[in-house]
Amino acid sequence: MANVRVVGDACVITSVLKKEDILKVQKYRPEALVLHGGEDGKEELFRIAATDRHAGKISTYGAEFGGESRDENQYATITMMISGFDDNLLDGLADAFGPALLKLNKLEETIPGILEEIDAEKAEILSNITIE
Fold it and tell me: Pairing between strand 43-50 and 62-65?
């Protein structure tokens, strides 16, 4: 489950997924990073991605992770400067990011299984390749 930490005017959202794992799924199974819903179950509700172009961003429609935690885990992070919240920062953050975090958490639960499938498929492919 992703968590949010605020220090001063910086807000960091840290995923339970490593950035390298998001990039792997993005490469081999990008559709697994999309949460679908709606009446027909085909409407795209939320999407996860990773990038090196910026510090990341999150909105109602998706989360784009641009950094990594600086510990040995290297979890994917989004770092944003926050301002404009009134006296109750906690409620303001919950209103601003809560719905997106709930969708992110749903997708995060599915990714470890997807990574196992990708690794198994790649191992099978590699077992059929001979270099002489």
Answer: parallel
Per-residue pLDDT of the chain (132 residues), as tens digits, is 899 999 988 999 999 999 999 999 999 999 999 999 988 988 999 999 999 888 999 999 999 999 999 999 999 999 999 877 667 888 889 998 999 999 999 999 999 999 999 999 999 999 999 999
Is residue 36 a contact partner of residue 47, using CB atoms and an 8 Å limit?
no
CA–CA separation, 42 vs 14, rounded Å?
A: 28
How far from 12 is each of 43, 74, 119, 126, CA to CA, in Å? 29, 14, 30, 38
Q: Does the pTM exceed 0.85?
A: yes
Which residues have C-beta within 8 Å of that of residue 117, sequence separation ≥ 6? Answer: 29
